[in-house]
Amino acid sequence: MGILRNTVSKTYNRISDLRKEIQTLTKSIQVAKEARAKAMKELEEAKSILEIVECQPVSSERPGRLRRLQGFADKAKEEEVTIEESLEAKQALLARGLEEGKELLRLLFKSFVDVLTERLPPVSADGDVPNLRAGDPNVTFPASDPEAATMEIDNENGADNNSQVNGENTEVGYTIGELEQWCLCTLGYLKSFSRQYATEIWSHIGMLDEEVFVERIHPLIRKAAFSGLCRQMNQ
């Protein structure tokens, strides 16, 4: 699970960095455009200052100054073009990163659905959603799964549930199947994952609704994901 979180975090941290870089470059282009416009204006004004020599109009500005102004204008143009090229490259990287993030979310949610669907007890014929908590006699796991071993859950005071104060045992115990525990933990992780990356998930919710959160999905899977997204079950 830690590897999963690291993979998703790296993907979306990179996307966040690219967005910040694009924002900075967009501002830099505006500054470069203004600098270029100013340099061109100064150059044109210098070129427009004329005097009459031998009945012919010639520039009264010194050639050295005109060359410097031309150099400033050329440099400003080059800088603007360089920033625009950098911006285009970053935008392409962002587009690719967003697509990779979309595919990653699709893969992760489909993986959650596949592994949970294989292990979760089915909904009853009456439409009752199974309760995975210990002690529910209606929970029946698929026959293809091996019989789940059970583990005893201690009371808050540390005493075994099959023990009484006088040392006599009772037949009433609080046990939870190993498979039930796995399902509960995985559903909890799905909820936590959906909550942590809710912003990214919501940006692709249309795709997920079409390909993952379909009508036939197990209601416990839908409930876990939607709870993390703070989304109503009927949405």
TrEMBL record:
Domain annotation MIF4G-like type: ranges: 3-201
Cross-referenced SUPFAM superfamilies: ARM repeat
CC terms in the record's Gene Ontology section: nuclear cap binding complex; nucleus
Gene Ontology MF terms: mRNA binding; RNA cap binding
Keyword Thylakoid: no
Any Pfam family hit: MIF4G_like_2
Coiled-coil segments: 15-56
Source taxon at top rank: Eukaryota
Annotated GO biological process: mRNA export from nucleus; nuclear-transcribed mRNA catabolic process, nonsense-mediated decay
InterPro entries, A to Z: ARM-type_fold (IPR016024), CBP80 (IPR027159), MIF4G-like_typ-2 (IPR015174)
Entry keyword Coiled coil: yes
Key words, A-Z: Coiled coil
PANTHER family: CAP BINDING PROTEIN, NUCLEAR CAP-BINDING PROTEIN SUBUNIT 1
Protein name (record): MIF4G-like type 2 domain-containing protein
